[in-house]
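User: Hi! I have a protein structure encoded as tokens and I'd like to know what sequence might fold into it. I'm fairly new to this, so please keep things simple.
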């Protein structure tokens, strides 16, 4: 580098830095403005937010059929440009698909993690007839809840979708990683002696983040499920203890009590649980 060039750079160092920043910003904006990656919004009144989660404030709305330009993806959300000069974040799962309902709600913007307890070599509790394993019924229940939530537009993540073993730490970690708006773990109780326990219980660990959710879910279970309701209780379970997100664990009745198992093993019961959870989550998120 010759002396004149070195002196020029030294004298104009601040101006050169400013020009470099301006050029970088201009290139980035130009790429965003002229990117041809667009998606179509699937619902009316989809909220545009300041950041990639429900916790960020609203900056606008976009309606069904609106094409928006994708600038960035993060945690299932899209940073988009719309109406030429407006920017914000919308849920990716509310784009490029058709829905049976018209307008978005907070539930349709939400990420819900469902956790069917046990699985694989961990059978969980056993029924009076020991071929009936807890892991089978937690998965059946969670899948019907998943279907109910997805019908309302929610993004649902399952800790397991088949008969496989998943560690407790991994279940909580999945919720934390995706910054879930709610985490619900499904289990079934067992008493030391057959037919000696009955009823469903809703457990929370973190009072600040999760007690309200537990109260709403339990209230709906009490109203819709034909089991003795044992209320909301504190529970020291790893999947909710190590969870930074609103989280609860449902013990949905006693698998080794005949009258409870009659409910647990029925499709009607699972529909009742799905309806209760979906209604409660909608209330919680609103």
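Assistant: Happy to help. Inverse folding works backwards from shape to sequence: for each of the 286 positions I chose a residue that suits the local structure. Here it is:
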């Amino acid at each position: 580098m010759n002396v004149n060039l070195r002196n020029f750079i030294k004298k104009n160092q601040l101006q050169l830095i400013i020009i470099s920043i301006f050029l970088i910003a201009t290139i980035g904006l130009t790429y965003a403005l002229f990117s041809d990656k667009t998606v179509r919004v699937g619902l009316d009144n989809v909220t545009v937010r300041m950041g990639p989660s429900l916790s960020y404030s609203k900056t606008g709305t976009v309606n069904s059929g609106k094409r928006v330009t994708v600038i960035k993806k993060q945690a299932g959300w899209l940073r988009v440009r719309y109406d030429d000069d407006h920017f914000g974040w919308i849920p990716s799962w509310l784009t490029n698909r058709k829905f049976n309902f018209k307008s978005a709600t907070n539930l349709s913007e939400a990420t819900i993690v469902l956790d069917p307890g046990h699985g694989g070599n961990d059978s969980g509790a056993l029924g009076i007839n020991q071929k009936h394993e807890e892991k089978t019924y937690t998965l059946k229940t969670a899948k019907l809840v998943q279907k109910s939530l997805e019908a309302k537009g929610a993004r649902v993540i399952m800790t397991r979708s088949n008969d496989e073993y998943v560690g407790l730490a991994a279940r909580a970690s999945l919720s934390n990683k995706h910054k879930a708006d709610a985490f619900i773990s499904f289990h079934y109780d067992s008493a030391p002696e057959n037919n000696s326990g009955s009823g469903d219980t809703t457990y929370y660990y973190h009072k600040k983040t999760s007690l309200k959710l537990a109260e709403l879910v339990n209230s709906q279970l009490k109203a819709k499920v034909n089991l003795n309701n044992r209320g909301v209780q504190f529970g020291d379970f790893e999947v909710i203890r190590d969870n930074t997100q609103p989280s609860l664990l449902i013990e949905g009745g006693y698998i080794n009590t005949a009258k409870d198992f009659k409910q647990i093993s029925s499709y009607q019961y699972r529909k009742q649980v799905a309806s209760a959870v979906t209604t409660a989550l909608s209330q919680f998120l609103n």
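A useful reference point when you look it over: Residues 107-285 form a domain with the Aminopeptidase fold (CATH 3.40.630.40). Feel free to ask if any position seems puzzling.
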